[in-house]
Amino acid sequence: MKQLWIEEFRLCIGNLIDSPCVRRMQQFPQHGDVSTLEHCLMVAFISYVICRFLGLNRYAAARGGLLHDLFLYDWHKPNPYPGLHGFTHPKIALHNARKFFSISDLEADIIRTHMWPLTFWAFPHHWESLVVSCADKLCAVCETFGLVRRARNTRALGWIAGLCISWA
Ligand SMILES: [Fe+2]
Ligand SMILES: [Fe+2]
Fold it and tell me: How far is the CA of 2 from the centre of ligand 2 (A)?
């Protein structure tokens, strides 16, 4: 069953993961030693599993999750965009997602609102957006405290990280 879920997850993000702009996220660190691509894959997969379990749109959750941080710069260094990264990057990611892909309104809402409640004006309009927003925060905490690095070395969680690394 685990294998089936992974295969379906792969199908959901199929045309995105092979795209050069999505692959570019591997160049940019996110938290600790985790790249933005690894982070987005983790968020996408966890959101996919939760939405599948809850009977929500797992397809949009996987795709929106993968594209939610498609801002394409190193946020630890000065970047060409004005404003604080935490507040501005959802809009930049959405702009890039629309530029490179055809995305649904639900996927756009997922990307635009994933920093809520920090961006209190960008309130999630769908349950899937709220799921991705929560998965994002969970992953950020795990990455910041080095739990992903440890997870890569465990049999229980290593397969998720291994999945991400093999694609990155
Ligand atoms: Fe983000
Ligand atoms: Fe994120």
Answer: 24
